[in-house]
Amino acid sequence: MSDSATAPATALTGCLAPDTDGLDPISKEGLEALIASGKADPKAVKTLKCKTVAEGRFRHANYIRDLQPYIVDEPPGLLGDDTAPNPSEASLAALGSCVAVGLHANAVARGIKVQKLELELEGDLNITAVWGTGDVSEKPVGFTDVRIVVDMEGDCPKEEIDALVQHVIQWSPVFNTFSRPVNMVAETK
């Protein structure tokens, strides 16, 4: 993986930092309630929504629930203002975050205390079509290869972490969105 994507070392905070009793702050009871809810209605589907608004050049504000806007932009090499990740980078971030959430939730469910959880992602794509305005000769559009390296430490053997990673990618919604066809519709208003 390239050094440009290396995150600085940080102190454990939030979900990895133990609370005053040394316990994982993710509620095992809350997780068990989510598990029971999923088992009670295994065909439940939730529709997620996002409204994307162009702000200028290639910078876009994405409105999700009642959160502050999530900004997506392009780097200068792609004529953007370089104020935020570009859409492809944001998709890698979504993939990494989804796999990380799954790893942490499954670790808690299995009683594994997580000491470290970092993922490095790389994706290869051909951008010469320039969003359909450039070279539109036959070629794959979008990522052709994505690599994920998981650096996870817990109070269990490495083999257990390896098995956990394989289990999580099988059930990660974003990993599965990347790895299988999705029904897509685009229409004008």
UniProtKB/TrEMBL annotation:
InterPro entries noted in UniProt: KH_dom-like_a/b, OsmC/Ohr_fam, OsmC/Ohr_hydroprdx_reductase, OsmC/Ohrsf
Gene3D superfamilies named among the record's database cross-references: 3.30.300.20
Pfam families the record matches: OsmC (PF02566)
Top-level division of the source organism's lineage: Bacteria
Protein name: Uncharacterized OsmC-related protein
